[in-house]
Amino acid sequence: MDELDIETVADPDLRDPVLVEGLPGVGHVGKLAVEHLLEEKESELVRRVYSEHFPPQVTVSDDGTTELACAEIHAVELDDRDLLILTGDNQASDNAGHYRLTDAFLDVAESFGVETVYALGGVPTGELMDEYAVVGAATDTEFVEELVDVGVEFREDEPAGGIVGTSGLLLGLGERRGLRATCLMGETSGYLVDPKSARAVLEVLEDVLGFEVEYDSLEERADDMEDVANKIQEMENQQSGMPTDENLRYIG
Amino acid sequence: MDELDIETVADPDLRDPVLVEGLPGVGHVGKLAVEHLLEEKESELVRRVYSEHFPPQVTVSDDGTTELACAEIHAVELDDRDLLILTGDNQASDNAGHYRLTDAFLDVAESFGVETVYALGGVPTGELMDEYAVVGAATDTEFVEELVDVGVEFREDEPAGGIVGTSGLLLGLGERRGLRATCLMGETSGYLVDPKSARAVLEVLEDVLGFEVEYDSLEERADDMEDVANKIQEMENQQSGMPTDENLRYIG
Amino acid sequence: MDELDIETVADPDLRDPVLVEGLPGVGHVGKLAVEHLLEEKESELVRRVYSEHFPPQVTVSDDGTTELACAEIHAVELDDRDLLILTGDNQASDNAGHYRLTDAFLDVAESFGVETVYALGGVPTGELMDEYAVVGAATDTEFVEELVDVGVEFREDEPAGGIVGTSGLLLGLGERRGLRATCLMGETSGYLVDPKSARAVLEVLEDVLGFEVEYDSLEERADDMEDVANKIQEMENQQSGMPTDENLRYIG
Amino acid sequence: MDELDIETVADPDLRDPVLVEGLPGVGHVGKLAVEHLLEEKESELVRRVYSEHFPPQVTVSDDGTTELACAEIHAVELDDRDLLILTGDNQASDNAGHYRLTDAFLDVAESFGVETVYALGGVPTGELMDEYAVVGAATDTEFVEELVDVGVEFREDEPAGGIVGTSGLLLGLGERRGLRATCLMGETSGYLVDPKSARAVLEVLEDVLGFEVEYDSLEERADDMEDVANKIQEMENQQSGMPTDENLRYIG
Questions:
Q1: D and B: touch, per 3+ CB pairs < 8 A?
Q2: Distance of residue A209 Cα from the nearest chain C Cα, in angstroms
Q3: Would the CB atoms of C140 and D93 count as touching at under 8 Å?
Q4: Which end of chain D, N or C, is more open, meaning fewer C-beta atoms within 10 Å of its C-beta?
Q5: How far apart are CA A222 and CA A220, in angstroms?
């Protein structure tokens, strides 16, 4: 295998497509968001990107068959314009790999006519939350203004430390190619996989791109996660000898 | 030396050979299994693969002479079909090295006409065991069915995290070349070198490939390991003040 | 993007320029020093150096726009001779990257006619200080003597462990190209960003290169840091139950 | 600078030279041994090897001038045959770097006609010692026998884990080029720089190569180290409340 190996699975014509990225990261917000889009909308796998910059690893499916670590790019046809969705199980394993893989992703996107990139992710707040703001960063001030209009927050010094990995480079390398790019980051505790944060990010995307999506299955997933979070809370309380809601019923 | 340097030691004609890999890994199951095959069957060293992706290291033999870190490929002629056995003391030291070495191993295998690959390894259970199931993963569903027929277990979400290193890539890169490949993983505690797990894996291989092998020397090694495990257990018990089998005799 | 990508932003003619480097390091002394020069003097950005040896990262500005990790080279025109100032937010992420980036910086410098290099940095003393000596090292004994004349101290075995990173290689690789180079290191505790140490280094540079600079804004920054240092001191004293200056007033 | 840059400083004709390597390692035994040879015998620097596989670093001399990290090869003319001595302050920083630098060292050695290589080092025993055996390993059994004749010990399973770094690869890569190579390892505690172990290794080299060297300066260095070791011992004893030899005199 070469350092990078892009497998062409399909080559549909897309109408004015934008690239939407959701790779693993804080709270798995970006990955959850694009996975939900792929579940809810009809999609077609168009490219697989293999690379020796991914971990030396296969995943095992439920039927016992294996798949080599790769990133996948899917086409989703919407009413007004189409999406190219980039997802996968891995970020690059090394510094140069981040640059080379992101360049490969942008090459594919540009070959489909992409001019705008949405990198989706999470921004850690360190505490459990009820309201999920979406924090943004973008390659130019016009794009910033457009996003402010749909409720995205731009905050000084946030995210502290900048944006790292593929999401960051989609903006950094995208801008150098003359693309417009933004990173939309849902607030999330940072401790758990966070479907509610993923919904907040997707709702921004609906507004910006003019499409609609159902959230039932994502809400179920959010409820499951809430159960997990509550159980953890309970166990911690029991260890510290404090009564939980559960305990209180028996006292009463 | 080049990045990869394949030394041709012999070039026998092999009948319908399969590649069997056993490099260091969980419980050294794969390595023990192929070492046992090489002890029990007549074999011929056919290739040494040197690489700057291996550690910068020589091993010292009992006669004081040294050998540069390498992987070895041996040919074993059986009644029905032949084996190419890949073993060695090291995995690659870096991410890209895993990909490049596995590609080199597959190049050698294909040059001998190999169409099927068996990667042998262990899957950690975290507890000492009496029965040793063999868990599998394979490149296609037909191969999965063949292996189910000889008792290999295919389990959802196992191994969690997929299969990493050379074993994983033999499947991932093998499939991309059009080879059939499986990883056969003997259950093992993960704490100790495990000859019994190696035997379980070899017994599957006997069934699939139609050959037979003696296990006396592997059983001796298993008994040695059991003595070690018992001593560790005893020491732990003495430290915690609990009587061991040994102690009980003296009490009686 | 290539491994190294040097963007030409401007190409002014410079009179007898010297290269002055201030990248992140001990006490951020070098970076503070060159940032202060860029604030106080008129300057022009002449080059941006992008590289996959920098972290895969964008920083986010106060207006919400992003910038890809890079090093910047600015031209500053002084009365007698001009400066090329190298700064940025990152050192290289890997060993070879340090060599390749430093070579790129020296290529740019030589294209402007630079023959002398001043690497600015800090040397950690492990204790808070009142007086800030500047310790030096240089590529040749003549240069050492020149610097001794303006008060730079050259001490046996200091800095212990030599000079690492871009500063070190500007001397090591610079000398191999026939350039004169020195590293001027302000003494600093090593615990805090240290504007006073940066001033000490700049004052040496003023003497050597014959220019003058105001220090008001750097002194403000030093006062801010002193407040921070005092608060840390106070908190530590309160924890250990010892009275601080603040407490003593209330006792009286 | 290229990945590897070999600077030719001198090109003397040497009579039947052998390569003697002493880079930093366990107890600095190898480096001490070759440094002592260079102090006691007339020598000429013949090559400097620079590489981006060395740390990005300059060392600072007592006169304040700097030197880029490199390895040095010196020629020493003895009565019967000459030596090429490889020394320096660093091993390679990365896996591939060890292979590439060792190949470069062997290229230089072969260009001078070297057919035999002596890698000098230490083998850690974990305890302070009175007698310093020299343990060996070599590329062929004849060489092993020659070294047994001069008192080198060859022990099963020692050094456990083989020989790593440049010393190991001089044997591993040397053998692949058809060179004879040995690693002579002085026993050493592994805790301290060990001039006595270095002497033990040099005495073997004297026997094998037929030359003589004075040990006064090395003995002084050993005495200094012994003082250091005694002080550490004393401090430990005082902390544990046990009397030292020193204390006992005062008690009496």
A1: yes
A2: 20
A3: no
A4: C
A5: 5
